[in-house]
Design brief:
Blueprint lengths: L8 H12 L4 E3 L6 E5 L3 H11 L8 E3 L15 H10 L4 E6 L6 H4 L4 E5 L4 H10 L3 E2 L14 H8 L5 E2 L12 E6 L2 E6 L5 H8 L3 E2 L22 E4 L4 H8 L6 E5 L10 E5 L4 H17 L4 E5 L8 H10 L2 E2 L15
Parallel strand pairs: 1-7, 3-5, 4-8, 9-10, 11-14, 11-15, 12-13, 12-14
Antiparallel strand pairs: 1-2, 2-6, 3-6, 4-5, 8-9
Helix pairs in contact: 1-5
This protein binds threonylcarbamoyladenylate (TXA) and magnesium ion.
């Protein structure tokens, strides 16, 4: 697929004008497409919640082109945040920091913190620099559903609710950013992403994993999130062929997302081999699930992914998208929860 990495001057001017007029603009980032509004205009930010069908208490990430205007949004930048920003910005990392007093409640969900990200995608950079301010943007999907990794996903999902969609081709990372928060001396990984816990540890030392206590506001904490419409089950790696046979018995159509080819041919089974590399598996994950979701199957079976931090982000999204986890022959479940 041809990738349009940069937008034309006219496209950027139109998008900037729309943002100034309080309209929504969908734009590519290297993680997923965002649904953007002027973060200083509460009425515009409210339109994001309406378009997504998202509960109002969920805070959104503010995107900047560089840390140069950070002080407009953040009261006090923790030292560890500065080090992480120097190491990973622009890039797929979001930092949750104390909010500046003038930040609107609709952006932060009324919390005392704000989430900031400097994306690396050239088109996101073009838009942010031309706009000259912060763009509040969650992923450009309906609430609870799969995040969009191509412009056509945004169009399919949000249609007329978004007049302007900047098309930057396929997102190269394909999963949402890593989110890190700072509470006193504690550094906490709230959402795993392509910047791994090990990479963060290397820069700032010890890192706590997962949300502290129960909060409705942590990423993807509703029962299913990042989810296809077809019921989805995670299956132990060694049993994917057997479970595909069992699930498709009697001619039921089944979809499989695996990391290898099938061991034998299965009737009634649509099989995607997404490979064994976490980078390409992640990049294609939402597009693969969308394709399987459209296939008219009764169930999606997903082969459990390997242990280890490189698979944490994928495992996290699969656990949130799954409606069930199949028991293994020995009675254990294959996938270990990364986040509570
Ligand atoms: O890669 C990404 O992060 C994409 C692109 C568009 O930047 N954005 C994204 O946004 O995934 P969204 O809204 O779908 O997920 C952001 C998550 C939300 O689930 C929200 O709960 C969390 O970030 N968040 C935002 N502000 C927060 C805060 N102050 N404290 C804790 N979590 C926060
Ligand atoms: Mg989202």
């Amino acid at each position: 697929m041809a990738r349009a990495v940069r937008a034309t001057q006219v496209e950027i001017e139109t998008a900037v004008q729309a943002l100034r007029d309080g309209e929504l603009v969908a734009f590519p980032t290297e993680t997923v497409y965002g649904l953007g509004a002027n973060a200083q205009n509460p009425a515009a930010v409210r339109k994001i919640f309406a378009a997504k069908g998202r509960p109002a208490a969920h805070p959104v990430i503010v995107h900047l082109d560089s840390p140069r205007f950070l002080h407009r949004w953040v009261r006090e930048v923790p030292q560890a945040a500065t080090r992480l920003a120097e190491s990973f910005w622009p890039g797929p990392l979001t930092l949750v920091m104390p909010r500046a007093p003038q930040v609107h409640d609709v952006v932060t969900g009324g919390q005392d913190t704000i989430a900031i990200r400097v994306p690396a995608h050239p088109m996101a950079q073009q838009l942010l620099t031309a706009f000259g301010g912060g763009i509040a943007a969650p992923s450009a999907n309906r609430y609870g559903r799969l995040s969009p990794t191509r412009a056509e996903h945004v169009r399919e999902e949000l249609g007329d609710a978004v007049r302007i969609i900047l098309d930057g081709g396929e997102c190269q990372i394909g999963l949402e950013s890593t989110i890190v928060s700072f509470e006193g001396a504690n550094i906490r990984l709230l959402r795993p992403g392509s910047v791994t816990a090990a990479q963060i540890r290397q820069v700032v030392g010890e890192v706590l994993i997962g949300a502290a206590g129960e909060s409705p506001r942590v990423p993807g904490s509703s029962p299913t999130h990042y989810a296809p419409l077809t019921p989805m089950t995670i299956v132990p790696a060694g049993e994917i062929d057997a479970q595909a046979d069992a699930a498709s018995a009697g001619g039921r159509r089944i979809a499989v997302l695996a990391q290898r080819l099938p061991l034998r041919s299965h009737k009634y089974v649509t099989w995607i081999n997404a490979g064994r590399k976490p980078e390409s598996y992640s990049r294609d994950l939402y597009n693969n699930l969308r394709a399987l979701d459209r296939g008219g199957c009764q169930r999606i079976l997903v082969q459990d992914v390997p242990e280890g931090e490189r698979w944490d982000a994928v495992r996290d999204r699969l656990l949130k998208a799954a409606t069930s986890i199949a028991e293994s022959d020995d009675g254990t479940t294959g996938t270990r929860a990364v986040l509570p």
